[in-house]
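Quick one: co-fold with beta-D-glucopyranuronic acid.
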Amino acid sequence: MKKVLAMVCALVMVLSIASAASAQTVLKLSEVHAEGYPTALADQEFARLVEEKTEGRIKVEVYLGGTLYGQETEAIEALQLGDLAFARVSASPVGSYVPSINAIQMPYLYKNGAHMWAVLNGEIGQKLLADIETGVNKDGVPSGIVGLCYYDAGNRSFYLTKAVNTKADMAGLKIRVQNNPMMVAMVEALGATAVTGIGPNDVYASITQKVIDGAENNWPTYQNMGDYEAAPYYILDQHTRVPEILLASKAVKDTIDPADWAIIEECAKATQEFEIQKWAEKEKSSEEIVRAAGTTVIELTPEARAEFEAAMAGLYETFGADYTDIITAIKDLGKDF
Ligand code: BDP
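Sure, here it is.
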C-alpha cells in the first residue's frame, strides 16, 4: 500500500512539474542590430527583467541582427498578425502605420538630445506612445501594435561615396532611406532619388554594388554596419532625430494575463535609462572609430545647412499639417534648451 502511495505521489509531482514547465509562455523579439549594440543590450535586459519579474511565466527570446526580419516594416507586419510578440524598431517605419508618430521625427525639429527627451518623456511623447495602440494608418487600418518605450538613436546625417558640400551636390544621388513616405519626400526635397526596401544590414552591399550612392544614419549604425568603409563621406547635416521604439503585438498582448502585461510594460520602461547610457558610450566610440579610419567628415557651412533645412521645410506642410498643435508645442518646449 505504502509503495502504491509513493508511486502516486511521484506521478503527481512529475505531472505538476510538467504542467508548470508548459505554463511558460515564450515570446519572440526581433532586432536588426547585432550583439553589443545599445538597443540589442536593452532588448536583452528587457528579456532578463521580464523572466525575473514574472517568475519565469514569460520568457522573451531575443533575435538579433535581423535574423527574424531584415526589414522593420516586415517585423511590424508580423506583430500585426500576432506572429511576433515584440520588435525594437526605429520610429521611422512606425510612421507608415501610425502617421502621428511622424510628429516626433520631423526634420530639424529638436534643438538637441535633451530637448528630444523632454518631449518624449513628457506629456506629448507619452501620449503619442500610448496612442500607437489605438492608431490607424492613412487608410483607416488599425495599427495592431502597442508602443512600450522609446530609446535613444542620436541624430541622422547623410553618408555617401562622394563629397557633398551643398544642396546642389545632392542632385541625382541615389540614397537609401527607411520605409516611410516622409523620409522619401525628405531626400527628394534635396533633389536626390530615394530608395526604399533595403534593410539596414543590406545597405553596405547595396553601396558596394552601386545600387545606391549612400544612405543616412547615426554614428553607431554607420560604424557598426561597416557602411563607413563603403561610403567614406559623412555629411554632418544632422537632419533628423529619430528615436527607437520597443513595440509589442496587440494580438499577442490580448492573450497575456493583464497582471503579467503590466509587468512587461514596467520592464520595458525600466530599460530606457539603461539604453540611453549605452547609447552615449557607443555614439562616442563609433565616432572615434569612424574618424580614426580616415573617413571624410564634412561639417556643412551654416549657409549650406540652412539650405538643407529650407529644402525640407515643406514636409511640415505635407506630413505635419494634421499635427500642427503637437509640432508647435514641441518647438515651444525647445525655447528652454
Ligand atoms: C538605425 C536604427 C534601426 C533602423 C536603421 C535603418 O537603429 O532601427 O532600422 O537605423 O536605417 O539607426 O533602417
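If it helps, The first helix runs from residue 2 to 22.
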